[in-house]
Amino acid sequence: MNIVIKTIPHKEHRYETCGDWFYHADGTLEIRVSKMSDWRYEFLVALHELVECFLCEHDGVTQATVDKFDKAFEKRRKPLNFDEPGDSPLAPYRKQHCLATGIERIAAACLGVCWSKYEKEIESL
């Protein structure tokens, strides 16, 4: 198993997102997270992406399926709409995304992160 987690400038993502996961041809899993003001926020996004990825893999939801849905969702996004693509009832990885969010919330509580402040920073990216 080879996993690389990188913090990057927000504008360098493959599409509009604060966290992304994808596999390289050699099988390396790469997780990219937007640079934020607090390392805990970056960790929480990375944790979410890691959990979501492995749950998708376990359940047979491919990276291509997730990417296709996310990119189409972002193209249809209306201004000032901060919905997560994975929360959509149409998301093919909704179950995996919601479980990852639950784990993310537990970790946030353990780290003393105020969820509303965390969400505001993500929305401001």
Q: What fraction of the residues are assigned to beta strands by DSSP? A: 5-15%
Structural class, by secondary structure, is alpha+beta
What order do the helices and strands follow?
A: EEEHHHH
Radius of gyration: 14 Å
Arrangement of strands in the largest sheet: 1-3-2
Q: What is the overall pLDDT average?
A: 96
Distance between the termini: 31 Å
Stretches with pLDDT under 50, minimum 5 residues: none
Number of helical segments with 4 or more residues: 4
The tally of structural domains comes to 1
Give a brief rundown of this model.
50% of the residues lie in helices and 14% in strands. By secondary structure, the protein is α+β, with helices and mostly antiparallel strands. The longest helix is centred in the middle third of the chain and has 21 residues.
How would you describe what is shown here?
- The chain is α+β, with helices and mostly antiparallel strands and 125 residues long.
- The protein has one domain (3-124).
- Helices cover 50% and strands 14% of the residues.
- The protein has four helices and three strands.
- Strands 1-3-2 form a three-stranded mixed sheet, with helices on one face.
- A hairpin with a 5-residue loop joins strand 2 and strand 3.
- Helix 1 (39-59) runs antiparallel to helix 3.
- The mean pLDDT is 96.
